[in-house]
Amino acid sequence: MANIYITEQGAVLRKTGDRLIVEKDDETLLDVPCEKVDNVLIFGNVQFTTQAVHEMFDHGIEMAILTRTGRLVGQITAPTSKNVDLRVAQFDRYRNEDFRLDLARTVVQGKVKNALNMMRGFAFNHPERNFTEEIEGIRSLSEQITGTTAIDVLMGMEGTAARIYFGGFGKMILSDFRFEGRRKHPATDPVNALLSFTYTLMFNEILGLLDGIGFDPYVGFFHAIEYGRASLASDLLEEFRASADRLSLSLLNNRVFKEEDFYRNPKGEGVYLMREALKRYFAQYEKYLNREFTHPETKETSTLRKCFRLQAERLAKVLKENVPYTCFNLEV
User: Fold this and answer.
1) ∠ at Cα 39 (278, 217), nearest 5°?
2) Which of 209, 234, 249, 316 is paired with 198 by a 20 to 30 Å CA distance?
3) CA atoms of 237 and 205, how far apart (whole Å)
4) 257 domain residue, yes or no
5) For residue 274, what pLDDT is reported?
6) Measured between alpha carbons, how far is residue 290 from residues 51, 205, 247, 305, 307 in Å?
């Protein structure tokens, strides 16, 4: 199963039989059976027919609509899952302040641990670069997380750990790209553009999974409820951010992209990938998410994409059966 990324401006997504067709100016750009598609992501000025949407609903295919520069606008999905018991359990757990705090601590601990593992792994492979200060700072914060007694304090600690981590992230870039710190909304340089775009795509996949399993994606435990924000998807993304960073770092250090693969928005701020560079990015993204490895806990063959689902299903079990939650562990 695969994702379809439609970036050709002016293209039209149609259906014939049980196949999805992408056309432009009477030319067929793509023709694929629905059974081979998980998600369709539309970027910018791309049209689609209601018949195509009906066919995607019939096959359980999610469709995400993004701006040309990659900002998620919204999703078109089939009717909400009938898993009402899960949503009831989710709402009950949300009202339990002790549960929320405990799960939030686990989420932040998982994120920080994965960031630390990634930095330690890079430091081991590149002894010529000194990460002692960053590693010690993140490690110290990690030890304090378990004793945190309020989510707002925990949020502050997570932010501090992120600042320390990204303070050292630039040292991990071996190519000519410069990185002076995390900048978003919008990204101000190519490195931040890659980081933000990867987060967006992973967030979209996680959001679709949560919705399909039967969660209410807008009721989170670490991230507060905020109008229009899928807080639960933001919660689950945290433990995968270091995995997203590793992909971005690999693309930079392997020189998959050059400065000319990015452009600055002429109508405002922000740096984004050029259209042809996007195609290369999607190929690398799919390869990364579908790379097989032995899961450290189950010992089964898995992929990062499968781990998204595994963690969502694990969270469902936590909410319904009151068992401890275990975050995804990034091994380097």
Assistant:
1) 105
2) 316
3) 10
4) yes
5) 92
6) 30, 13, 12, 6, 10
The residue among 73, 129, 105, 88 whose CA lies nearest residue 238 is 105
How many angstroms separate the CA atoms of 239 and 108, rounded? 8
Q: In the chain, which ranges are E strands?
A: 2-6, 12-16, 19-24, 27-33, 37-43, 47-48, 62-66, 72-76, 262-264, 271-273, 293-294, 301-302
Residues of the chain scoring pLDDT < 50: none
Residues 288 and 210 in one domain: yes
Predicted confidence at residue 267, as pLDDT, reads 76
Q: What pLDDT was estimated at residue 156?
A: 95
Q: Taking a C-beta distance cutoff of 8 angstroms, is the pair 240, 202 a contact?
A: yes
Structure token digits, residue 168: 């050292």
Same domain, 66 and 168: no
DSSP string, 287-305: HHHT--EE-TTT-SEE-HH
Q: What is the pLDDT of residue 81?
A: 61
Per-residue model confidence (pLDDT) at position 2: 75
Domain at 157, CATH number: 1.20.120.920
- Specify the amino acid at residue 172: M
DSSP 128: T
Whether 150 and 48 map to the same domain: the answer is no
Please indicate, yes or no, whether residues 271 and 155 belong to a single structural domain of this protein.
yes
What pLDDT was estimated at residue 82? 66
Q: What is the CA radius of gyration of the chain?
A: 20
